[in-house]
Amino acid sequence: EKKMEVLEGGKIDNQKALVQSSQVANQKDIIQFYLGHFLVKSAGGGPVLACQKYQTVDMTFIAAGVSAHGHVPKMILKADCKFNLDQPLQMGPFTIPKGEILQSSIDQQLFKKGKDTLLFSHVVIRWPTQWVLSEVRFISDKREKDLTVAFTSNKEEDFLTLNLK
After folding, report:
1. Burial level of 92, CB count in 10 A (0-12/13-18/19+)?
2. Position 70 pLDDT exceeds 50
3. Which of 18, 34, 98, 165 could be stapled to 23 by a disulfide with Cβ–Cβ 3.0 to 4.6 Å?
4. d(Cα 116, Cα 31) in Å, to the nearest integer?
5. Overall average pLDDT of the 1-17 stretch
6. Which ranges of 13-160 does DSSP label H, i.e. alpha helix?
7. What is the per-residue DSSP string for the chain?
8. Is 141 helix (H, G, I), strand (E, B) or coil?
9. DSSP code for 122
10. Residues 18-51: pLDDT tens digits?
11. To the nearest whole percent, how much of the chain has pLDDT over 90?
């Protein structure tokens, strides 16, 4: 049985918490994925789920092995921090409209789906197909300090990679 741990800088590897319960379904026109969910300290000091404290999540993906004029292509997904009470170990689902992206000109850098926004930068020639999650920022609209989880491990299993192919 998986146990949730309270995340306080350093007590648990934040990166592992996000990736170990993650799940990716790569379908024909969309990628739907979930990130691992974890507990954080509430304003009162007790444990709460991250999406109960933070309302928005900004996920930064970088193109694997691609660079253009010294810049690595980036894909940033800004979405509601959401989770299913039946699956509290996962937040999401989050959706990437890969069919729409791959059929668009690389000049189109903004994609909106509902309240979710997908923003690309430094994409030249063609859409990169491999995107690696490099940072997740949890944002509160209640004056709480943001929580940023940067991915620093060198182990491949500690990363989440999305494939637009």
Report:
1. buried
2. yes
3. 34
4. 14
5. 56
6. 14-20, 50-53, 98-102
7. -----B--TTSS-HHHHHHHT-EEEE-SS-EEEEEE--EEE-TTSSEEEHHHH-SEEEEEEEETT--BTTB--EEEEEEE--EETTEEEEEEEEEE-HHHHHTS-TT--EEEETTEEEEEES--SS--SEEEEEEEEEE-SSSPPPEEEE-----GGGS-EEE--
8. coil
9. S
10. 888 899 999 999 999 999 998 888 888 898 999 9
11. 55
* pLDDT tens by residue, 107-140: 999 999 888 999 999 998 899 999 999 999 999 9
Q: Who contacts 2 (Cβ-Cβ below 8 Å, separation ≥6)?
A: 21, 89
Q: Quick one: pLDDT at residue 156?
A: 66
Q: How far apart are CA 3 and CA 123, in angstroms?
A: 40
Q: How far apart are the first and last CA of the chain?
A: 34
- Reduced to 3 states (helix: H, G, I; strand: E, B; else coil), residue 41 is strand
- Separation CA 12–CA 3 (nearest Å): 12
State what percent of residues in the chain have pLDDT above 70: 89
User: In the block, which residue shows the tokens 């999305």?
Assistant: 162
**Token reading at 94:** 């989050």
Question: How is residue 137 written in tokens?
Answer: 């920022």
Closest CA to 47 of 98, 8, 76: 8
